[in-house]
What does this fold into?
Amino acid sequence: MWAAQRSRAELALCRAPRRRCGHVLHAPAMAIPTFPTPSLRSPSAIVNMTRAICRRPLEYATIPAVAAFLGLATNWVGVKMMFYPIEYVGSEWYRPAPDSPGGLFGWQGVVPAKTERMASRLVDIITMRLLSLPQAFSRLCPQRTAELLIPAVDDAVRRDCGEAWAVALRPLLPWILSRAISEMQKEIEGILDLKSLVMTAFLRDKEMLIDLFQEVGRVELKFLVESGFGFGFALGLLQMAAWAALPRIWTLPAAGAVVGYITNWIAIKLVFEPAEPVHVGPIVVQGMFESRQAEVSNEFGGFLEKRGLSPPCLL
It folds into this structure.
């Protein structure tokens, strides 16, 4: 049948009238069927996505819900992995360096893994920018300081040397202590190595550095975790639209990875940037941590006073 149809088509072509053009005879061109091309004015992709979502609303609603949960969960896990475990857990095989938090089959919190480096930088900030020992001790009044120390010194003499020595030295204690404080003010940098003192405290107790970060930055850490829910939900709406437009299985895990990364990135940016206040109309925009500078400074000083530079640590 196909051969017969072909023969009839060739015969019709041969019998068709020919037109002369110069010295060449041309057969009339055969009509080629055309198909309508999609117009940009046809129902848009947005309309199609809306229809797809309306047909199965509950199924599509699970996409932003799961994305919100993933954003919250990944941020929570990320914050926990910054601080825990305190000691390396797992195999040391293929761990790039002793202060590297991660190996191929193990993990240690970022802060405890890099305690020495972080503590060194923190001590440099304290000793070079925040606290000058000669300047701090020069503000002490030797007489007033001696009065505050007399009860403790008198008790120590009575306990270690007996009541007789305590009675004999009591009239001389104000003069002795005030002279000792005056001499100490002149040679304080040789007497007290503040950098070594604070470094030793941080390295001896890694939880101390963790507690410092968690106490001073508790507001920002809480925001890092909780913001994952909102940002994850917003990105989940985009993921839902993408699934409605292109329902491919690989888009879901790919979008989940993107949601986890972007939620962390946005949250960290909002915590630290911009460093200086930026006026956007009536609104002032500044990083959360920088906007709490006065509060953070008080908490930082209070923590060091209690844990790092307390009298037991100094003695």
Summary: The first helix runs from residue 2 to 15. The chain is about 70% helix and 5% strand. Confidence is low (pLDDT under 50) at residues 1-42.
